[in-house]
Amino acid sequence: MGQPLLNPITLFISNPCTSSLSIFIICILGFYTLHYPHASPSPSNSQTALIFRRSFLSSATNATVAAYLRALTQHPHLAGTKPSLDTIHYVQSHFSGLGLQTHTARYNALLSYPLHSSLSAHFSNGSHVDIPLAEPGLSHDGGGGGGVVQPYHAYSPSGSARAKVVFVNHGSGEDYRALEALGVSVSGCVVIARRGGDLPRGEAIRNAEKNGALAVLLYTEGDRRFNQGFERGVVMNGVGDPLTPGWGGVDGAERLDLEDPEVLKRFPNIPSMPLSAEAAGTILGTLGGAGAPPEWRAGVGRVGPGPTVLNFTYQGEKKMVTIQNVFAVIKGLEEPDRYVLLGNHRDAWTYGAVDPNSGTAALLDIARRYALLIHSGWNPRRTIILCSWDAEEFGMIGSTEWVEQNLVNLGSKAVAYLNVDCAAQGPGFFVGATPQLDNLILEVTKKVKDPDLEGSTVYENWLTKNGIIDIQRLSGVDSDFASFVQHAGVPSIDIYYGRDFPVYHTAFDSYDWMRKFGDPLFHRHVAVAGIWGLIALHLADDSILPFNYFSYVDQLKHYKDVLSHLLDGSILLDPLTTAIEEFAYAAKEAEDEAQKLREEESTSEFVMLKKRALNDRLMLAERGFLDSDGLEGRQWFKHLVYGPPSDHGSKLFFFPGVADAMNQAKSTKTGQGQAKLRHEIWRVARAIQRAARSLRGEIY
Amino acid sequence: MGQPLLNPITLFISNPCTSSLSIFIICILGFYTLHYPHASPSPSNSQTALIFRRSFLSSATNATVAAYLRALTQHPHLAGTKPSLDTIHYVQSHFSGLGLQTHTARYNALLSYPLHSSLSAHFSNGSHVDIPLAEPGLSHDGGGGGGVVQPYHAYSPSGSARAKVVFVNHGSGEDYRALEALGVSVSGCVVIARRGGDLPRGEAIRNAEKNGALAVLLYTEGDRRFNQGFERGVVMNGVGDPLTPGWGGVDGAERLDLEDPEVLKRFPNIPSMPLSAEAAGTILGTLGGAGAPPEWRAGVGRVGPGPTVLNFTYQGEKKMVTIQNVFAVIKGLEEPDRYVLLGNHRDAWTYGAVDPNSGTAALLDIARRYALLIHSGWNPRRTIILCSWDAEEFGMIGSTEWVEQNLVNLGSKAVAYLNVDCAAQGPGFFVGATPQLDNLILEVTKKVKDPDLEGSTVYENWLTKNGIIDIQRLSGVDSDFASFVQHAGVPSIDIYYGRDFPVYHTAFDSYDWMRKFGDPLFHRHVAVAGIWGLIALHLADDSILPFNYFSYVDQLKHYKDVLSHLLDGSILLDPLTTAIEEFAYAAKEAEDEAQKLREEESTSEFVMLKKRALNDRLMLAERGFLDSDGLEGRQWFKHLVYGPPSDHGSKLFFFPGVADAMNQAKSTKTGQGQAKLRHEIWRVARAIQRAARSLRGEIY
User: CATH code at A669?
Assistant: First the structure.
């Protein structure tokens, strides 16, 4: 793409006065460290820590972030391809150039690439048209030759179909029921669906398959300026390398056979492909048959079948490739065995200016700013690890393999995982978190300047715009936090600016788009880096971990109320009530103890071990929500509060096991279904009790 | 039984000189503590710790142990019965009388009691005889009325049968194959088996059921003086309350239905009962049919079927009862959140003088001796918990419910579990352990006087008698260590003197038997208490945990060699080799670090946190052997190195998943069987790798 460096970029420094002061203090600290190497200024001392946090904030610049993004997005860099290797080296040399200790973790994983595809529409008048299957004006290939990868669905089987077309709206279960009511069957047809309704790609394909369709085309509506874009994406179920479910796919590891039922069940059985909104319009405008249900508001008149016939071919290959995660480690001085992890993926479907390299640029800038702190004498109390994941787009493979490989150590030592994927998609601050981190998020957003409203903090603008502070939860499997939360039970955060950006997974997700639309001044990048890096500084340096479980208690109470409303008294929720009470009691106890210990400045053995013991409880409470048996039929998912429901139509975006049981109970209508549901509610209650016990830390 | 107190009992004090010196030093320490309450002499100081250990050893007396045992065994005290409550109060007031903090944990569990049984033998000459079903000269009842419980198999279904009898040796799979070779079928018959060949009771019943038998009678051969004894016992599969599999059966907890398949699968479907050796002789002497295979060496001429016909009836009831574990807690001063657990069960089939109250008496004496240390100023570094379990005889129910209830906290905080069940069965020292504790056992047995050889230590006599030091492993499910090792991955030890005592589970297991045969001078009790208590002192006070993983490495190498020999090259064991190498490397690294830190006397924050971090690694490495998916079909068993194989005929008493897969591969003889076996070997390799990673403590 080769864009010239955006010039001039305004240096975005918080406040010249504070910043000169900070620099002065840092010099003093640096001198002190140089001359008293063993008496390093411990950031556990709250005054010192405050100075380091201030100097972190004051070292922000948008110019550096922009430069990183530009370098990362020079070429498309799909996971497993040659240009992707260049980004590995870029990130690695950035880290090591800053003097940070770097590592890589390599895995051999089964990825999926396109070989050939074609699509033609044959109209009732006998004419036909070849539908373009790539963005215009760019070189496309299988992803390895330097061009943009041709649009495809990773892990789609190869196949072809020549059949009438049906429009199925989003392709949800409800949509198929609406079609049935119209007397329309998709059996033996090619279906076209538009992405939306939060329905995951894979589920749209599975629904079509269940209803007898031969192939699926998915298009994305949105900004008309980009309606020639194709949304690439993965259609495999679950996360991680399908050949190494539950363990790290390192060199020489056990690998399941491609024909193993455990592997096969993760792939769809009918081929699919993305379609541009423009091409979809061409086809859908020619449909006859029944009229579309008005509630679809689809801008489509009739749904078919036909009379238009599509001739569809897709050929792809699944292939073992090497993927690499890159790490920078800043070893903790007092507690090197406690980890604060900041993670972002590096691989992109195309240029990845938004997804994911706006996050990568922020991560690299945090590295730069942390390195400055180190030069001025800072050593974090706990270890900070910056993680650059590979192959996220193929199902969070890089992060998942690493989490699986390091599960025992993460389970006992990871304080928190902080994720940023698409850092800058547009305006508006969004954040998701496990609830014990809510408070910290609020505190930190009060310290960071809003990128879009002069004179305001992120917190103020966020509150003003929404009226309330809305922190999402992490039940989805749409970024690298999935393994950390849902498999390992590590408290996590996910941060981004803007949402639903129109060039998502298309060839238009470029530095140029970012400069023109996403974040022209790179202030949103800077805000994300500030929040992300500052949260990590607190988690790494605060002598008592800044976790607050009251928020978790409130959240659980709310979930219980929602569930109670949905069940309408058909099942008593007493076990949940009791468990939440126990959890509330534990939260209060922990908070009281935390307040006392925060004020305790002594570094005697007794006090230090007391603090460590309390921190262990704060850190490990989240693990209590894990159940070693996992969700039924999806054992990998161990978290009983946050995880995806099996059926996306579920009204519960928490308690995934309960959500599944509710669905099943609806379809079976037998006493057995109700018994199962009661059992799942018990399992959640016990998980909450475990978390409470873990937080209280008493076994007798 | 009301035996007069054995009199005179020789006071068993190690050495008058050392002991006066110790008492003097203790007085000094006591004074010091009294006057400088905040400058408590830390046992982390190795000199001080040594003095406390010496004074622990010198405070041993056999008189106290004997008195405790006598009090505990006054009445039979079957779990869930009234007299059992008295032992709860006895133990609890002993603990609290010593000034120790006590707790109880109550569970409602499904136990099983007999109501009625009868057995008559009908001979070919037309005569018949009623077989006595209880020990002579004692009052028998359902266990609750103060008498000895009539002989029965807990969880046997009620039922009756009138059929020809067949002798099946131990009733193993091999035995049934031998019968088949003789043309003898047990279908429709009552079988008699003699306990032995390490075959668990439940497995003998299952095998009979599989072969079509209607009922099973089990007798125990042994000392002819006690051949009127009946071996009571449990015939349920698995451990813990069958209604609360995987969670603690506290008041108000979820309980599965009695008809739930998960519950039903744990019970046998045909009735069974114990038989005395005398009664068995009466019946077996009248059998005709085929001659017994000579390799059975059974002292039985012919195996039947018949002509003798047995008329058998058993009626029992399963019943919810309250059980109680009792705890004494000695809170650690520096690290109260690290637990060293000493456990023994309290419930007995009859009087329980050997099983289990010889262990209880030792536990109570340890409590007494620890209380003395506390009075002289000792505070353990870590928390010590003395555990008195209930309902072990019904399937380790008390300990299992507690472990399940406290799994998250035990998982992150339990240093070790030290079990003693039948402390004194006769002469000869026996010990089982997870291998990282081998070294500590050796060191401690070198410090304790041998109870049977004047002037020798336990270690010396042990070595002399056996030629080698043989430490068993904990794959069995025959005492309360099962949940700790096999479900929670806590390093564990099991200690006892003597084995295979002839009055096992009979009404003759009384104080009188102990005084006459088991341990007339109570020196074996004293030796067990000394070893047990001293091991705990090291684990509680040593600043670096006395774990040594070299022994684990050697053990794993040995297992690999055995497996390799059995597989005879049919499967490459490279994954195991690599994993063991990784584990060996980690063991070396940890040991080097431990040696360095042991010498480090500083108590600076850095050093303390370094020690704590290393201790965490040493403690948590065992958890790495757990696999959250557990053994196939027996998910509760999470440990992949130690656990019972499904089929007791297996030659592997380690790697239980591999053992099961080998058995299945033998019977299927297909490629699938081999693939499964390879997969199980991989799982073990990954478990060893996890342990290695946990021990190394690095995640990058």
Answer: 1.20.930.40
Q: Do B679 and B555 reside in the same domain of the chain?
A: yes
Which pLDDT does position A669 carry in this prediction?
A: 65
Length of chain A: 700
Report CB contact under 8 Å: A699, B337: no
Residue B323 lies in a domain: no
What are the catalytic residues of B? 392
- pLDDT tens string A421-442: 999 999 999 999 999 999 999 9
For residue B616, the chain A residues in CB contact (below 8 A) are 337, 412
Q: What is the pLDDT of residues B326-377, one digit of tens each?
A: 999 999 999 999 999 999 999 999 999 999 999 999 999 999 999 999 999 9
Rounded CA separation A417/A437 (Å) = 11
Cβ atoms of A492 and A419 within 8 Å: the answer is yes
Q: Is residue B326 part of a domain?
A: no
CB-nearest partner of B694 from A247, A408, A679: A408
* B617 and B476 share one domain: no
The Cα–Cα gap between A654 and A3 comes to: 44
In a domain, A664, yes or no: yes
Residue from A369, A366, A345, A342 nearest A357 by CA: A345
Q: Judge whether residue A545 has pLDDT over 80.
A: yes
Distance from CA of A590 to the nearest CA of B (A): 14
Contact A620 B412 (CB under 8 A): yes
In terms of domains, do B480 and B597 share one? no
For position A226, which CATH number holds? 3.50.30.30
- Among the candidates B487, B512, B541, a domain finishes at B541
User: How many structural domains are present in chain B?
Assistant: 3
User: What is the least distance, in Å, from the CA of A526 to any CA of chain B?
Assistant: 28
Rounded to the nearest angstrom, the minimum Cα separation between A19 and chain B is 32
Last residue in a domain, options B541, B566, B591: B541
Q: Higher model confidence: residue A2 or residue A314?
A: A314
pLDDT over 90 at A450, yes or no: yes
- pLDDT at residue A43 tops 90: no
The ipTM is: 0.91
Q: Half-sphere exposure of A644 toward its Cβ, with a 13 Å CA cutoff?
A: 21
pTM of the predicted structure, to 2 decimals: 0.92
Q: Do B605 and A603 touch (CB under 8 A)?
A: yes
Residues A281, A143 share a domain? yes
- Looking at per-residue pLDDT, the higher value among A276 and B21 belongs to A276
What CATH number is associated with residue B446?
Answer: 3.40.630.10
pLDDT: which is higher, B291 or B92: B92
Shortest alpha-carbon distance between residue B372 and chain A (Å)? 23
Mark whether B463 and B609 lie in a shared domain. no
Average pLDDT for A463-467: 87
Percent of chain B at pLDDT > 90 equals: 82
Contacts of B108 (CB under 8 A, 6+ apart): B249, B250, B251, B320, B321, B322, B323
- Tell me the residue range of the domain where B627 lies: 550-696
3-state secondary structure of B462: helix
pLDDT cut 70: percent of chain B above it: 93
B90 within some domain: no
CA distances from B48 to A477, B28, B43, B128, B363 (A): 55, 11, 5, 72, 24
On whether both B482 and B508 belong to a single domain, the answer is yes
pLDDT at residue A626 is higher than 90 = yes
Residues 6+ apart with CB under 8 A from A510: A1, A3, A73, A350, A351, A353, A503
Please report residues of B whose CB lies closer than 8 A to that of A578: 252
- The span from the CA of A78 to the CA of B337, in Å, is 48
Q: Under an 8 A CB cutoff, do B700 and A103 touch?
A: yes
Clarify whether residues B507 and B612 are in a common domain: no
Report CB contact under 8 Å: B629, A407. Answer: no
Q: Six-digit token pair at A39?
A: 């008496």
Contact B254 A694 (CB under 8 A): no
Residues of A in contact with B678 (CB under 8 A): 254
Poorest-confidence range of A194-208, A368-382, B159-173, B683-697? A194-208
Shared domain check, B210 and B61? no
The minimal CB distance from B334 to the residues A609, A628, A690 is found for: A609
Interface A:B, Cβ pairs < 8 A: 113
